Structures are given as structure tokens and as C-alpha cells.
TrEMBL record, chain A:
Primary localisation category: nucleus
Organism: Mizuhopecten yessoensis
Chaperone as UniProt keyword: no
Function statement: Component of the general transcription and DNA repair factor IIH (TFIIH) core complex, which is involved in general and transcription-coupled nucleotide excision repair (NER) of damaged DNA and, when complexed to CAK, in RNA transcription by RNA polymerase II. In NER, TFIIH acts by opening DNA around the lesion to allow the excision of the damaged oligonucleotide and its replacement by a new DNA fragment. In transcription, TFIIH has an essential role in transcription initiation.
InterPro entries the UniProt entry points to: TFIIH_Tfb4/GTF2H3, vWFA_dom_sf
Keyword flag DNA repair: yes
GO biological process, one term: nucleotide-excision repair
Quaternary context: Part of a TFIID-containing RNA polymerase II pre-initiation complex that is composed of TBP and at least GTF2A1, GTF2A2, GTF2E1, GTF2E2, GTF2F1, GTF2H2, GTF2H3, GTF2H4, GTF2H5, GTF2B, TCEA1, ERCC2, ERCC3, TAF1, TAF2, TAF3, TAF4, TAF5, TAF6, TAF7, TAF8, TAF9, TAF10, TAF11, TAF12 and TAF13. Component of the 7-subunit TFIIH core complex composed of XPB/ERCC3, XPD/ERCC2, GTF2H1, GTF2H2, GTF2H3, GTF2H4 and GTF2H5, which is active in NER.
Name of the protein in its database record: General transcription factor IIH subunit 3
Subcellular location: Nucleus
GO molecular function: zinc ion binding
From TrEMBL, chain B:
Keyword match Transcription regulation: yes
VWFA domain mapped to chain residues: 60-236
Molecular function via GO: zinc ion binding
Subcellular location(s) per record: Nucleus
Keyword match Transcription: yes
InterPro entries per record: C1-like_sf (IPR046349), Ssl1-like (IPR007198), TFIIH_C1-like_dom (IPR004595), TFIIH_SSL1/p44 (IPR012170), VWF_A (IPR002035), vWFA_dom_sf (IPR036465), Znf_C2H2_type (IPR013087), Znf_RING/FYVE/PHD (IPR013083)
Keyword annotations from UniProtKB, A to Z: DNA damage, DNA repair, Metal-binding, Nucleus, Transcription, Transcription regulation, Zinc, Zinc-finger
GO process terms (BP): DNA-templated transcription; nucleotide-excision repair; regulation of transcription by RNA polymerase II
UniProt-recorded name of the protein: General transcription factor IIH subunit
Organism: Mizuhopecten yessoensis
Entry superkingdom: Eukaryota
Zinc-finger ranges (C4-type): 291-308
Entry's family note: Belongs to the GTF2H2 family.
Annotated Gene Ontology cellular component terms: transcription factor TFIIH core complex; transcription factor TFIIH holo complex
């Protein structure tokens, strides 16, 4: 069977924007009764389930913060070869599979570090997502080079996002999305609160699922039901219908959405 | 073109002592200098890019494929034709990826005739199926350069002057059977501002060189299959716009995509304009892109509206060509030893511990990258992950907000 040589790599980009999570935690926006800690718990269960699907499956978690992006897992200094240190770092004694312990510990530690040290003086309500996505693509590019002969690695990216879009990132994000499309990487988005026009386009271009979850408290359930199966198995499932995507361009002068525009023929500007 | 003439042919120049470049290092191995050469070759393509030139973004290109006897030769495996078509498929994909609002047409030439097998169009899939269907055609007779150039010229001269007009000929044969004086055709191409480039599969031919020189094109003869591929790829990036190209504003439409299932709006299924003439059932549904001016329906973009002539594109199509306008600066090569850290140097984007002697640093965000990521970022991604991660360093993109 050729199927057995295909392993699946999942890169999760989680939005850790302090402004949005702070609001969500205090319940200011109404129904968002969820804290970052709870979200990370869901994320860990989800990533463990992904690793459990097949022992070949791989995982990376990136946190997109308000002004930077860092890898939560795998940690930098061991550069992906996590197998060596597993037994040392994992908390032993409860009979848990060591890799799960390692993954959970690293995510927890790195996230704690990020929250404690990451508090820059200025906080913004939006997140720099394009950087995280670009990092994910570089990581995938590297790991696809590293697979042995005869093996195949299919990669996808899942973005869990709550905060607002940053319109200044349009160019960078689009560059990243086109790269993903070229490399056959599916980008899925699970949106917690604000509908995101940018992510809708990203998912539509790469053939991923865009879902704004109606009930934030059911995050884990949505993750497991909709985002756990591989894209190859998705057509067998009944998934939520695709939303309509607004592809209109905005003009450079007023940023109004337009139907008919004038484009300069030499450099492309829409005016 | 001037200095190329003076340079003359390779065999007229002095004997090159290629082995003198390779030197033994302290351990007596040549590994380090071999690594160095590989390294330079990898980065060469990045270095060659020029900045700040006007590019013709809307291109109209005719591919002329030689289907003469000479294409049966087996110096490229399995045959010249099969190998050419395979590479051209890749070329077509790349072409539309890099030039999303451009058009392409295909002409074949054999038996002293030229035949247009695909009209100018913007659909990569259609062109690829056309190319695939050519595999079964038999190669016979002699090609005709003049006939194919005339045929291309007939269509290209009607194209608007703000777009570039180009012909790319893949020529396997060393001869051409022309009905008249080819100098007249060359003059005609020149008058119509058609840029003609030729890739020769066999050896240099005087007339080809002249055509390319006169029309500002490039003439190359392939060395092997790898070189062939590189030559084709070099035609993917838009050429610098000639001074005669006028810049003007082009009216474009951004259609809405409506999906099926809007039953409450009372929408009915209809036939799309692109499949109107075909006999198949494809294209009959209630979903599609609707032209904002005349409301005719299309099933894919980009396309020129058949009823009102408006160019229909989607915003991502335009966004795809932005990176030509704002190319990413090349990263600085820095030796690892000069970086003050106690642990190993890690690549910012892929987290690998760098083992090469050099790392690459972005001048704006000061992040370090490994060679693989550097190439990937410049060739495919076109935006620096480090810069995109931080608010201060992404300023440059601020003014180019497309859609929010």
C-alpha cells in the first residue's frame, strides 16, 4: 500500500492577541466565555488527537502575537528533532505517551513565556498573521525537503483566530497565500469572533475550510469534527457550506470597494 | 546587443582554465571550493534581478512550436518534441502564475505552413490541454519562420498598445522554408513593436540572430535540458516595457461570485457565456461570476466580457503581480562566526540550526535565515517573514491595501 508512506503535517497558528483575549475573558463582547488557557487546552487535545491518528503525523504550533510570531512547538534549540529529548522532558509517571507530554509541556511553557515577556508597551487589537503564515510555509518547505525517499508529506495549516484583521498585511498575506496555493498547502481557518475577509479569501484560494464558529465554548468539538480529518477525506463528510467570498478590489485612493475600476497598465494600481 | 557581437564566439576566445578556480583548502580537500561554487550558482539567479525598471505587466505572447522533421531527433529524451512539450507545460503554468492578467496563444509550424492551434487567451488549463494534444501530432517537413511570424503578427498588431506584444519561437530545425523575403517580415515586426525571442535546439542560425537583434528579443541555443528549462523560465518574468509602450488606465470589472443555493432570492439557473457555443452541459448552473456592467455570467476569471468588452478580474489576480512592483531586497550574506550568540544560530523562519558557514540577514528586520529559506523567500514567497511579523517593518506595504 502506498498509502502508508504518506504522513500528514499540521501547522496550527493560534492567535494570542492579548487585547482580544482580555476582552473575551472579561466577557465584554457578550457570549465569548472562553479564556486563552481554555483555548490552549482545546488546542492541546486537538493536537494530541492529530498525532494519535498516525504515528507518522507531525505537528507544529505557532503563536501569532500582536507584534511578533513565535514557535510554541517544536522549540527552537532542538530544531525539530524532538525524538532525542523526549524521555528527558516529558513528565513521567502517569503512563501518558511521552510525545503528548512533551508537546503539552512545551506549548504550555512557551505560551507562558510569551504572555509574561511578550507584553510590549503598545498593544493593538489586531494580529500580525501574515508573518506567522510565512513562517509556517518556510517550516513546511524545510520539512518537505527532509522527508526520506519514498515518503510523502502532505501539509496543511490551521489558523485559529479571534482578533480583527490587519488590513496593512494584505500584500504579505496574499503573497503567502499564493505560495501556499503553489505548494499545494491547504489553509483552514477557524474564526472565533470577528469575520475575516482576508482569511475567507485565503481559504477559498487554497481550497480550505473557513468556519466562524457559532458557539465559542464548543471550540474543541468543532476542531475535532471539522478540522481533524485530512483534506483527502473531506469530501466524504458533510461539512458546513462554503460562505460567499467577496473578491472585489478596493481602490488605492479611497479604499472603497468597487465593481468597475481603472487599472494602470504598467504598474498595477486600481484607482 | 552590441557587446555580444564583439564578444564573438566561445571558440574564438582564449582557452578557459576552469580547474584553476578550484583550490585545495588547509585539509587538502576541494570540498569547500566545490561547496562555494554550488552556493554561488544557487544565489546567482537572485543576484541577476534588476530593480527599478518599468515592466510590461499585460503581456500578449505567442508561442511558436516547431513541428518539423527536426523535432523527431532524440538528442533530448525521449524526443525533442516530447521534451519540449513537457517543458512548455511547466512554462505555461509559471507564465500565468507570474502574469495573471496576460494572454497566451500557440502556433505550430510544419510542412512549410503555420497553424494557429490556440487563440490568445488567459486560461492556463486550455493551453495545457492543447499542448498535451500536440504530442500525438506527427512531425513532418520543414518549418516556416516567416509564415509563423506573419500569423502571429496578424493577431498581435490588433492588441492595444499599452500591452506588450511578444513572440517566443522554439526552433528545432536549422532551416526554414519561407515564401518571401524575411527581411520584410522583420521590418513589419519592428514597426508593430513585436518583440521576438527564439530558443534554438540545435545550433546558432544567422537569420534567427538577426530577427532577435532587430526586434529586441533574445536568442539562445540550448546546451542541455537543464539549460533549456532555465531559458524558458527566463521568459516568464515580464520584460522591461519599451519606451513606446504608452501607459494608460484600463477599465476593469470586479465581478461578484454568487453561489448556488440562493433559492430565496428567486435566482434561476442559466448558461454561462464561456460555454454558450459548446455542446456539453458544462456551465449550466446558478452560480458564477456576473459582469458588473452587463450582468452576463462567466464560470471563470480572468476573462474579457464577450458582450461588453470589459476586462473581468478578481482582486487576488492583481495582488499576484504586486511582487514584481515591490521586489524584496536581497538579504546580506553574513558569516556565522561573526554573530555573537552562545548557542547555535537558528534560522528565524524554519527553526533549523544553521550549519553552513553563512547566514542571510534581512536588512530591515535583522532576522537571520538559512540559505534554503533565503531562496524560498525570494523565489516563491516574496515577503520576508520577519518583516511581516512586526508592525514597524511592514510599513512599506501600508499604502497597498487591497481589500479589507
Amino acid at each position: 500500500m502506498t498509502e502508508s508512506s504518506v504522513s500528514s503535517q499540521l501547522i496550527i497558528i493560534v492567535d494570542t492577541n492579548p487585547v482580544w483575549w482580555g476582552q473575551a475573558d472579561t466577557g465584554e463582547s457578550g457570549q465569548n466565555q472562553m479564556s486563552l488557557a481554555q483555548c490552549l487546552e482545546c488546542l492541546m487535545v486537538f493536537s494530541n488527537s492529530h498525532l494519535m491518528m498516525s504515528h507518522r503525523n507531525k505537528l507544529a504550533v505557532i503563536a501569532a502575537h500582536t507584534d511578533k510570531s513565535i514557535f510554541l512547538y517544536p522549540k527552537k534549540d532542538q530544531g525539530g528533532t524532538s525524538a532525542i529529548n523526549i524521555s528527558e522532558e516529558a513528565d513521567q509517571g502517569d503512563g501518558k505517551y511521552e510525545l503528548f507530554g512533551l508537546v503539552n509541556n512545551q506549548i504550555k511553557n512557551q505560551a507562558r513565556e510569551l504572555v509574561i515577556n511578550g507584553g510590549s508597551s503598545l498593544l493593538y487589537p489586531d494580529t500580525v498573521l501574515a508573518g506567522a503564515l510565512a513562517m509556517a510555509l518556510c517550516y513546511i518547505h524545510r520539512s518537505e525537503k527532509e522527508v526520506g525517499p519514498g515518503e510523502q508529506l502532505s501539509s496543511r495549516v490551521l489558523i485559529i483566530k479571534g482578533s480583527e484583521d490587519n488590513p496593512e498585511q494584505y500584500m504579505n498575506l496574499m503573497n503567502a497565500v499564493f505560495t501556499a496555493q503553489k505548494q499545494n498547502i491547504v489553509v483552514d481557518a477557524c474564526v472565533l469572533d470577528n469575520d475575516s475577509g482576508l482569511l475567507q479569501q485565503a481559504c477559498d484560494i487554497t481550497g480550505g475550510i473557513y468556519l466562524k464558529i457559532p458557539q465559542v465554548s464548543g471550540l474543541l468539538q468543532y476542531l475535532l469534527w471539522i478540522f481533524l480529518p485530512d483534506p483527502t477525506e473531506r469530501h466524504k463528510l458533510t461539512l458546513p457550506p462554503k460562505a460567499q467570498v467577496d473578491y472585489r478590489a478596493a481602490c488605492f485612493c479611497h479604499r472603497n470597494l468597487i465593481d468597475i475600476g481603472y487599472q494602470s497598465s504598467i504598474p498595477s494600481f486600481v484607482a | 546587443m552590441g557587446d555580444e557581437d564583439e564578444k564573438g564566439y566561445r571558440w574564438e576566445t582564449e582557452y578557459e582554465k576552469t580547474w584553476e578556480v578550484i583550490e585545495e583548502d588547509d585539509d587538502g580537500t576541494i570540498q569547500s571550493s566545490v561547496d562555494d561554487i554550488i552556493h554561488k550558482a544557487k544565489r546567482r539567479r537572485l543576484m541577476e534581478k534588476l530593480g527599478n525598471i518599468r515592466l510590461g505587466m499585460m503581456r500578449h505572447l505567442f508561442l511558436v512550436i516547431d513541428l518539423s522533421d527536426a523535432m523527431k531527433d532524440q538528442d533530448l529524451k525521449p524526443t525533442r518534441l516530447a521534451s519540449t512539450l513537457k517543458l512548455l507545460e511547466h512554462f505555461v503554468e509559471e507564465y500565468f502564475d507570474q502574469n495573471p492578467i496576460s494572454q497566451l496563444g500557440i502556433i505550430t509550424t510544419r510542412n512549410k505552413r503555420a497553424e494557429k492551434v490556440a487563440e490568445l487567451g488567459g486560461n492556463p488549463r486550455r493551453h495545457i490541454t492543447t499542448l498535451q494534444s500536440l504530442v500525438n501530432k506527427t512531425c513532418q517537413g520543414e518549418p516556416s519562420l516567416q509564415n509563423s511570424l506573419d500569423l502571429a503578427n496578424q493577431t498581435l498588431r490588433h492588441m492595444p498598445s499599452h500591452a506588450s506584444r511578444e513572440v517566443l519561437v522554439v526552433l528545432g530545425s536549422l532551416t526554414s522554408c519561407d515564401p518571401g523575403d524575411i527581411s520584410e517580415t522583420i521590418q513589419l515586426l519592428k514597426d508593430n513593436n513585436v518583440r521576438c525571442s527564439i530558443i534554438g535546439l540545435a545550433a546558432e542560425v544567422r537569420v534567427c540572430k538577426r530577427i532577435c537583434q532587430e526586434t529586441n528579443g533574445k536568442y539562445f541555443v540550448i546546451l542541455d535540458e537543464g539549460h533549456y528549462k532555465d531559458l524558458l523560465i527566463s521568459h516568464v518574468t515580464p520584460p522591461p516595457a519599451t519606451s513606446t509602450t504608452e501607459s494608460s488606465l484600463i477599465k476593469m470589472g470586479f465581478p461578484h461570485h454568487s453561489l448556488s443555493g440562493d433559492k430565496n432570492k428567486g435566482e434561476k439557473a442559466s448558461m454561462c457565456m464561456c460555454h454558450l457555443d459548446s455542446k456539453v452541459n458544462q456551465g449550466f448552473s446558478s452560480s458564477g461570476y456576473f459582469c458588473p456592467q452587463c450582468k452576463s455570467k462567466y464560470c471563470e476569471l480572468p476573462i474579457e466580457c464577450k458582450s461588453c468588452g470589459l476586462t473581468l478580474v478578481s482582486a487576488p489576480h492583481l495582488a499576484r503581480s504586486y511582487h514584481h512592483l515591490f521586489p524584496l531586497e536581497t538579504f546580506m550574506e553574513t558569516p556565522v562566526s561573526s554573530i555573537p550568540t552562545d548557542s547555535a544560530v537558528c534560522c528565524f523562519s524554519c527553526q533549523i540550526a544553521v550549519e553552513d558557514p553563512n547566514v542571510y540577514q534581512c536588512g530591515r528586520c535583522q532576522q537571520l535565515y538559512c540559505l534554503d529559506c533565503d531562496l524560498f523567500i525570494h523565489e516563491t514567497l516574496h515577503s520576508c517573514p520577519g518583516c511581516a511579523c512586526s508592525r514597524e517593518t511592514q510599513e512599506s506595504s501600508q499604502q497597498f491595501v487591497g481589500l479589507t
